[in-house]
Amino acid sequence: MALLQQRFLCFVLAHHFIAATACQEADYGWMIQHYCLKQFQLSMEGIGQRLWCDWDETVGTYGELTNCTALIAERLDCYWPNRLVDEFFVAVHKQYFRNCSPSGRALHDPPNSILCPFILLPILVTLLMTALVVWRSKRSEGIV
Predict the structure, then answer these.
(1) Label partner for 110 (CA 20 to 30 A): which of 13, 79, 85, 129?
(2) Closest by alpha carbon to 71, among 27, 32, 21, 20?
(3) Is the pTM of the predicted complex or chain greater than 0.70?
């Protein structure tokens, strides 16, 4: 019976210790929204929406956002990354990077000066080879 009382006492003390030092998720969520996200928004506005998909332009700002969430987690004794951070970054990506390609560059057609040779050259080679085969087959008919 004494062993059972000791386990119960350890459980109660451990619960209070964990509750006293556990991450305050509400505070953490509020702080990353009001400190980290606000700074990120200002930086992204400074970059301009046209360059949001250019990784070279946004990598510094994105790194600062990541570091901000990690530092606040450390100050509040929260694990990092955690569920709130995951949800936070999913929301950031939905707002700022939803139209970006996975490579980080906006996809678009190459200029016509590059595209036309890649289209015309195979067509011309095909026509030339067809003409060569027809010409060669007509020429060899007389030779036995």
Answers:
(1) 129
(2) 32
(3) no
